[in-house]
Amino acid sequence: MKRTTIYLPEDLKSSLARAAYEAGRTEADLIREGVERLLQSRHAEPRLPLFTSGKPDLAENVDGLLAGFGEK
Q: Is residue 20 part of a domain?
């Protein structure tokens, strides 16, 4: 493991110390668990472009391309 330092507001540090004591665990253990949960719950934001249509002017010509769509 690599050592790191974090800065916490006093009230959060007190809450962390109390939670660790009550759980019979170390503060570092609770912090690791919290970081792991945060990283597992995050979903990567899609990067643009989401797909390649092969038509660089697709957005500019959308009206012409969709002309008549949905008509009988």
A: yes
